[in-house]
UniProtKB/TrEMBL annotation:
<dbReference type="GO" id="GO:0005975">
    <property type="term" value="P:carbohydrate metabolic process"/>
</dbReference>
<protein>
    <submittedName>
        <fullName>Polysaccharide deacetylase family protein</fullName>
    </submittedName>
</protein>
<dbReference type="InterPro" id="IPR011330">
    <property type="entry name" value="Glyco_hydro/deAcase_b/a-brl"/>
</dbReference>
<feature type="compositionally biased region" description="Low complexity">
    <location>
        <begin position="33"/>
        <end position="57"/>
    </location>
</feature>
<feature type="domain" description="NodB homology">
    <location>
        <begin position="70"/>
        <end position="249"/>
    </location>
</feature>
<feature type="region of interest" description="Disordered">
    <location>
        <begin position="12"/>
        <end position="75"/>
    </location>
</feature>
<dbReference type="GO" id="GO:0016810">
    <property type="term" value="F:hydrolase activity, acting on carbon-nitrogen (but not peptide) bonds"/>
</dbReference>
<dbReference type="Pfam" id="PF01522">
    <property type="entry name" value="Polysacc_deac_1"/>
</dbReference>
<dbReference type="InterPro" id="IPR050248">
    <property type="entry name" value="Polysacc_deacetylase_ArnD"/>
</dbReference>
<dbReference type="InterPro" id="IPR002509">
    <property type="entry name" value="NODB_dom"/>
</dbReference>
Amino acid sequence: MLRAAASAAAAGALVAGCDPHRDEDSGTVGREPSPSGAGQASPAPAHAARPPTRAPGLPVQIEHGPRGGHAVALTFHGRGDPKLATALLGEAERAGAKVTVLAVGDWLDEQPAMARRILDGGHELGNHTMHHRNICALPAAEAYAEISRCADRLRALTGSIGSWFRPSQTRRATDLVTGLARRAGYPHVLSYDVDSLDANDPGAPAVQRTVLESARPGSVVSLHLGHAGTVAALPPILDGLRRRGLRAVTTTELVT
Ligand SMILES: [Zn+2]
């Protein structure tokens, strides 16, 4: 059952992007997690997870950081084959880059070791809802549950609900979802200003071109774990950014 669910999630990740035009994949995964996870004692983290980030002076919904600096944030939809996720993190670390992973809660249930792996690489971890449903189309109670259940998973695994919340299947949150995220403990909603379109699997050169043509100082770039083309595109993206004097840093470092 677990293996089947993981396979379904990995296959689904090939088509499930963050924007509203891509299909949702997780409705068929169907393993409803126990609500008891929130009450478990948190393990003592080797790398402390950061609490939700507060960025004074920035809007509640953040699309980018300061344009006058020399940094960008590469932010990843956190789901899919853990081998590809681990390979992606390794490529970032070889280049001295930090990334932000917005993890889907059901992925954390299937791959709990990934939370620690992400933090141990010095990267940042956040909440990308429990099941990656179309959160802005859900009734308030269901949307809140999607946020709070993923927060519970993150807290159980790392001791923190994560630094950021990013809504699922949408670039921007509605006012309702923004309010629900705040109620769950996230002062900001993390949007983005550059869409790599990598979830469509256009090939590594296209992902590289799209990112490097659009990224500028302060950019928050949307990317996805679980896609081989994204893993292959990361080294040339980081090289291209470096040539332009831009460093890839955590989202918190970008905006604070
Ligand atoms: Zn997503």
